[in-house]
Design goal:
By secondary structure, the chain is mainly alpha-helical. The chain folds into 3 domains: 65 residues; 100 residues, Serine Threonine Protein Phosphatase 5, Tetratricopeptide repeat (Alpha Horseshoe), CATH 1.25.40; 102 residues, Serine Threonine Protein Phosphatase 5, Tetratricopeptide repeat (Alpha Horseshoe), CATH 1.25.40. It contains 17 helices and no strands. Helix 6 packs antiparallel against helix 7. The longest helix has 17 residues. It starts with a helix and ends with a helix. It holds the Pfam family PPR.
Length: 285
């Protein structure tokens, strides 16, 4: 009924019907919300639309692929451009996190031809999508877009560029980005260490970690994941074990399943299969 009212240009009836739905104790779902959002858009009812958005967030529908486009439309129709961009970012981020990079990039292209302007959050998700695809040419184009529109002032965007280039097969471009950074936080160091380790440059990854310590930047779990991969690929068993146990002993970082996997790989590559088996047998997870 709500959808029917919305389609046949009777938004007020759809809104009144929604009041009846709430009063009856029925929880609206992802099919109800798009119809109601269309009704609010037609009525230019921005405040009521915001209230509906809040309710959708409470019900976990804010990233729903049916709800997000109608949210964008509602805010655009009500001339709330900033909120429309936020909604655009939400669905692009949702696609990127769900390993659906093509959909994220398609929506980014729609954003470019509209009156809405992307933000640094948009670019982070787009770069993540490029990294998932391993698309070097596309990543390079996004890099040019970043420079032209001034997004290269954001540290997280620069870090995402390192990751994108590394996952697209161009470690040199990633290292160039890192070298040109005037400020480097934990994520930037970790991204570069992981990139070197993934490309088989274990010694370089370990050297970067020593530089990171001299710069007094605290490592995180990603830093140690890169170090363990680097140790495994270069056969540095003793160093790898030291890195693993220093995570909790020195830095208070609890190892995760990927860290344990790297340790098994480290021991196995070195032919120490008995130790690898004992390690697995004693895992707390």
């Amino acid at each position: 009924m709500a959808r029917g009212y919305s389609r046949y240009n009777a938004p007020l009836q759809a809104i009144l019907l929604f009041s009846d739905i709430l009063c009856s104790g029925i929880v609206p779902g992802d099919y109800t919300f798009p119809s109601l959002l269309k009704a609010y858009a037609s009525s230019k009812a921005l405040q009521e639309g915001k209230q509906l958005h809040c309710l959708g967030t409470k019900l976990g529908l804010n990233h729903n692929i049916y709800v997000c486009p109608t949210l964008i439309n509602m805010y655009s129709e009500c001339n709330d451009v900033n909120a429309a961009v936020v909604c655009h970012n939400a669905i692009i981020t949702g696609y990127a996190r769900s390993s659906r990079p093509n959909e994220a990039l398609s929506l980014f292209r729609e954003l470019q031809v509209s009156d809405l302007k992307p933000t640094d959050v948009t670019l982070l998700s787009i770069l993540s999508s490029c990294a998932l695809l391993g698309a070097l040419d596309l990543g390079s184009w996004i890099h040019e877009y970043v420079k032209i529109h001034g997004f290269d002032k954001y540290l997280k965007v620069k870090t995402a560029l390192i990751d994108t280039y590394a996952k697209s097969g161009s470690l040199d471009d990633g290292m160039m980005q890192f070298a040109n950074m005037s400020v480097r936080d934990t994520q930037a160091w970790s991204a570069m260490i992981m990139a070197c380790a993934t490309h088989g440059h274990g010694s370089r990854a370990i050297s970067l970690f020593e530089e990171m310590k001299r710069a007094r930047v605290r490592p995180d779990e990603i830093t140690f994941l890169g170090l363990l991969k680097a140790s495994s690929h270069t056969g540095l068993v003793r160093e790898g074990c030291e890195y693993f146990y220093s995570m909790s002993d020195k830095y208070g970082i609890i190892p995760g399943i990927k860290h344990y996997g790297c340790m098994v790989d480290l021991l196995s590559r070195a032919g120490r299969l008995d130790e690898a088996y004992k390690f697995i047998d004693g895992l707390p997870i």
